[in-house]
Amino acid sequence: MAFNWSEYLKLAEELAARTDEAAHRSAISRAYYAALGKAREQLESDGGTFMPSDNLHSLVWQTFTNSPDDRRYYIGIDGRWLRLNRNASDYDAAMTDLSGRASQAVRKARAVLDALERVKA
Fold it and tell me: Which domain, by its residues, includes 19?
């Protein structure tokens, strides 16, 4: 059975509700991977394939932002925002407003997952 990526989003919600910095950073990361995992699954179900050598993160979001379908385009935009914030939460020791960013990451990831449901072929 395939992994249910929305489980990462549930975990992100739990982590975002906590008060510690590590939880907020982890919430941003888990929200991102929930969106990335579902987006990749959607592209694969549409017939897309990914090679191990591909830069999966860039390729997934670029595929969505290059779509003529506005709904897919905005999935890509939100995915890129999530990726930038995930990178910052993983590598930027001076990142500010982690609580707010964690909450926003959860909201954006939820929006991506909901939009992916609406664009299924």
Answer: 6-118
